[in-house]
Design brief:
The structure holds two protein chains of two kinds. Chain A contains seven helices and 13 strands. By secondary structure, chain A is an alpha+beta fold. By secondary structure, chain B is of the alpha/beta class. In chain B, a hairpin with an 8-residue loop joins β10 and β11. Classes of the chains: A alpha+beta, B alpha/beta. Chains A and B meet through α2 of A and α15, α16 and α17 of B.
């Protein structure tokens, strides 16, 4: 077992664990945010640079620091490694810079975006971003791409995390979409305009950290914070059948995979479960899904919250 | 006086053909290496020689070779990085075009040292003529038994392939090159693992620059110790410098490392002074990605010591008052050059060539370009100059590969040393709009 210290908290982890996974084991505010990394998708991560941390001691044997900040999602821990995340001003600064870069060309159309309320980029910019932009140029826009009847694609919102590509590559047989062009002009697209259609294509909606890929059958139907998430399952011949149903009143508005606290789905579901089974009778209800208390999804389901007396009320409520 | 190793016999007619090349001592190193030396001995010679990578970073070649994983039992690969695309650098093209066998000879020795039975030359796609020359040379080498099975009866096999790039600067980054060679999109990989452990097809791989490999033949022939005597300090050997810009004699020069910069610019053996008898203004000493230095700092270090053409001397003073030898693209600007326009030009290049994989580089390079475009066209504001410094500092060090650094260094250095020119651009928008060329600051003084 390797001992690793992150922001003065130590933990022992298996060799081969990444810094990010070790931090998640410790939990709390020292967990670096991650936009492009998805623990179920091989080779994902390293691209968005939000999870960068400072390694002040490489290992017990070789205590030299790593000169540059490293992507914690892809850097494996060494025995005796000492890592600084929120305790390093350099990391905090770099993260702020990355948020600024990610938002440069993002349309910020949250008021009309279906992802609003459960968007990783919203959370990231709320926690680490600034409240003004220094970007005066015109934002980059793309032509509309139609990728079929089930999934709505908004290329303008895309942050090029490559998650949907890894998902399509690793979950399905025929990947028809990828990244075209390069640099600032790169875009996710199909070549030449095709529909993304297969039994598991809907999962690219769940892995998308922003509102670039959304559910067409749920489009503009409701806001997520008006819905009540319930865990449910059914005997599905193609997938695990473990889903979250999103209710308003008695009506199921949409079906998604079960996202954990880091926004990752671990049981991928098939398109039949996601798009066609929108009736309570199809499902065995397990109970309400726990959503992080600070999420806006909880805002309309008032719970008894003890308001702490001073500063940092959120943190204490969470605990 | 030019000391020639890589470009030896370059003037001989027909040297690009095998028979002429062999008449002038070509491929002797092969006999020596394959018949009388073990692979490890070749690596040791290269280590003793102190040869450093000529592609830009200057990492010791022998050290790089010794990192290659020989235990895994996986096949090993040698790749020659001939994707020379840096603005200002054109030495590898010159070498491959005129004396291709020098590279092939070096590659066979290197492959023998590494135990690689497959080697690739990844050539920049635009070098159509070079690809033809290399293929002809390789065909000749195969016919003479210098490539293929059982080379010179030694039992060592080597296949050498030329692979053409498709027009991407980023594929000069070694892991992006490997991805591209595998037939994928040329996105750099995250390191570690380094190519010496997991490179081409996840097998141990060494990627070396053309000029680095072209030195190997000489080192095997004459020994590492002899090679280490050439040059100065830890900068051993010679270096090809491709000089361009406002000089009398642009071209590729092979210099002994340690030559004073002053001599290189003004001597008639080399650049031959500034064109039209004008004043020197600034120099980018190692290809577009290294920091630009003004006249005072390129000729002498901040301590007043003469600056030499060597890895150490050019980087003395860090980035505050120094630069880098880089890949040897020596770009000279005379007194009438506009640094802002030049910086904008470089920035446009990096924006165009960013792969778009990681966010700081993808978004930052385009942002820097637009801000510089504004300043260059008389729409800049004073705060834009600080904004540029800030963007550059936020890209640097935060990206997957060094392209982010390469994009931010020229901008940061230009503002560091020539801030007054940027301020002039911002403060005289009308003048800037009407006149597009030349040193406007100087023009204003005259009027």
């Amino acid at each position: 077992m390797f001992k690793v210290t992150i922001d003065n908290q130590s933990i022992e982890v298996e060799p081969g664990t990444t810094i990010l996974q070790a931090a998640r084991k410790i939990g709390g505010e020292i967990v670096p945010p991650a936009m492009c990394y998805h623990s179920e998708l091989k080779n994902s991560g390293g691209k968005c640079r939000t999870c960068m941390v400072k390694v002040v001691q490489g290992s017990a044997n070789d205590p030299r620091p790593i000169p540059k900040l490293v992507a914690s999602c892809r850097t494996e821990v060494m025995d005796g490694m000492v890592v600084e995340n929120i305790t390093s001003p350099q990391v905090v600064d770099a993260r702020k810079a990355v948020v600024e870069f990610l938002l440069l060309n993002h349309p910020l159309d949250c008021p009309v975006c279906d992802q609003a309320g459960e968007c990783d980029l919203q959370n990231l910019s709320y926690e680490h971003g600034t409240n003004a932009t220094r970007f005066e140029e015109e934002k980059r826009t793309y032509d509309k791409v139609d990728i079929g009847n089930l999934i709505q694609f908004h290329p303008n919102r895309c942050i090029l995390c490559y998650r949907c590509i890894y998902a399509a590559d690793q979950l399905t047989d025929n990947r028809v979409h990828g990244v075209l062009y390069r640099g600032e002009k790169s875009e996710i697209s199909t070549f030449i305009h095709q529909a993304i259609e297969n039994d598991f294509s809907g999962n690219i909606i769940d892995v998308c950290p922003v509102g670039a890929l959304t559910d067409k059958t749920f489009r503009f139907k409701n806001r997520v914070w008006f819905l009540k998430p319930m865990d449910a399952h059914r005997n599905c011949p193609t997938c695990s059948g473990k889903v979250t149903l999103w209710y308003r009143g008695d009506e199921v508005y949409r079906v998604t995979g079960r996202k954990d606290v880091y926004g990752e789905v671990h049981d991928f579901i098939c398109n039949e479960c996601r798009f066609e089974k929108k009736n309570s009778n199809d499902w065995t209800i397990e109970g309400p899904r726990t959503v992080a208390p600070y999420s806006v999804i909880n805002q309309n389901h008032y719970k008894k919250v003890v308001i702490p007396s001073v500063i940092n009320p959120l943190k204490e409520t969470m605990e | 006086m030019e000391r020639k190793i890589v470009l030896e016999h370059i003037d001989v007619e027909g040297i690009q053909h095998l028979d002429v090349y062999r008449q002038h001592g070509g491929y002797l190193s092969l006999k020596k290496a394959l018949k009388s030396m073990t692979p490890d001995e070749v690596v040791t010679e290269v280590k003793t020689a102190g040869l450093r990578g000529r592609g830009g970073a200057g990492f010791p070649t022998g050290m790089k070779w010794s990192f290659i994983d020989k235990k895994s039992g996986n096949p090993r690969y040698l790749i020659c990085n001939a994707d020379e695309s840096e603005p200002g650098t054109f030495k590898d093209r010159y070498l491959m075009q005129h004396i291709p066998h020098r590279l092939i000879e070096g590659m066979i020795c290197a492959a023998y040292a590494l135990g690689a039975n497959k080697a690739y030359i990844y050539v920049r796609g635009e070098f159509k003529a070079v690809i033809g020359i290399l293929n002809t040379a390789i065909k000749e080498a195969y016919a003479a038994g210098l490539l293929g099975k059982n080379i010179l009866g030694s039992g060592f096999d080597l296949d050498l392939h030329v692979h053409s790039g498709a027009g991407a600067y980023i594929c000069g980054e070694e892991t992006a090159l490997i991805e591209s060679l595998e037939g994928k999109r040329g996105n750099p990989r995250l390191k570690p693992p380094f190519p010496a452990i997991k490179g081409l097809y996840q097998c141990p791989t060494v990627v070396n620059n053309v000029e680095t490999l072209a030195n190997i033949g000489w080192i095997v022939n004459n020994g590492g110790e002899e090679y280490a005597k050439i040059g100065i300090g830890r900068s051993t050997g010679t270096k090809l410098i491709s000089a361009c810009g406002n000089i009398n004699k642009p071209g590729v020069y092979e210099i002994e490392l340690g030559l004073p910069v002053h001599e290189f610019i003004y001597s008639n053996d080399y650049c031959g002074g500034i064109k039209g008898g004008k004043e020197l203004k600034a120099v980018v000493p190692g290809g577009s990605s290294v920091p630009i230095l003004p006249k005072e700092l390129i000729l002498k270090t901040i301590e007043g010591v003469d600056r030499l053409m060597s890895y150490e001397s050019l980087s003395e003073g860090g980035f505050i008052s120094g630069s880098m030898l880089g890949s040897g693209g020596f770009i000279v600007f005379d007194e009438d050059a506009c640094i802002v326009r030049n910086t904008y030009n470089f920035s446009r290049f990096y924006h165009h060539e960013s792969c778009g994989q990681c966010s700081p580089c993808r978004e930052g390079t385009s942002w820097m370009e637009s801000v510089l475009h504004r300043i260059e066209n008389g729409q800049g504001k004073t705060k834009d100059i600080d904004l540029l410094v800030s963007i550059a500092s936020k890209i640097e060090g935060n990206t997957i590969c060094p392209l982010g650094d390469a994009a931010s260094w020229p901008v940061a250095a230009a503002i560091r040393h020539f801030r007054h020119e940027f301020e002039f651009h911002v403060n005289h928008p009308e003048l800037i709009k009407n006149i597009k060329h030349g040193n406007l600051e100087k023009l204003d003084v005259k009027n």
